[in-house]
Amino acid sequence: MSAFTGWRAALRMARRDALRARGRSVLVAAMIALPVLGVTAVDLTYRSIQPTLAEELTAKIGSADARFEAAGVGPVKVEQLPADAEEVYFPDGASYPEGDLEDAVDVPAALPKGSRSITEQSVPASVTTRHGVADTPVTEVDTGDPMLRGRIELVKGRYPKSGAEIAATAGFAEASGLSVGDRLTVRGPGRSYTVTGVVELPADLEKKSLYALPGAVIAPWREAADDDENVVLPQVGELAWLVKGSSGAGVTWQDILAANEKGVVVTSRQVALNPPPDSQVPAAGKSRPEEPDDRLAAAALTVGAMALLEIVLLAGPAFAVGARRSRRQLGLVGSCGGTRGQVRAVVLAGGLVLGGVGTVAGAGAGFALTVLFRPMIEEFSGRRFGELTVHPGEILGIAVLGLVTGVLAALAPAIVAGRQSILESLTGHRGSRRSSRVLPAAGTAVLAGGVALALYGGLSGSSKLVAGGSVLAELGLLGCIPVIVGFLGRLGRRLPLTPRIALRDAARNRGRTAPAVAAVMAAVAGSVAIATYTASTTAEQAYDHRPNLTAGTTAVTISTEGSAAELSQARAAVEQHYPVSGARADIERVWAGSDCAVHVGEEGRDCGVLELIKPTGGAHSCPLSGDGAKELAQRISAEEHKRLMNSPACVDEEFTQRVFSGDDHKILVGGAELLDSYVKLKDPAAAKALAAGTPVLLNSAYAQDGEVDLKAVHAYNNDDESAKAQHSRGATTTVDRLKVYVAPDSYAATPGIRMIMPKKTARELGLHTGSAGSVYALTRDPSEAEKQAADAALTRAGGLAQIMTATEPAGSDDDATLLILALFAGVVTLGAAAMTTGLAKADAEADLTTLSAVGAPPGVRRSLSGFQCLVVVLTGVLLGTAAGLVPAVALRLTDLRTALEAMRSQPMQSAYTPIEMPWPTIAFLTLAVPALAGLLAAALTSSRTALARRAG
Question: From what superkingdom does this record's organism come (predicted)?
Answer without folding.
Answer: Bacteria
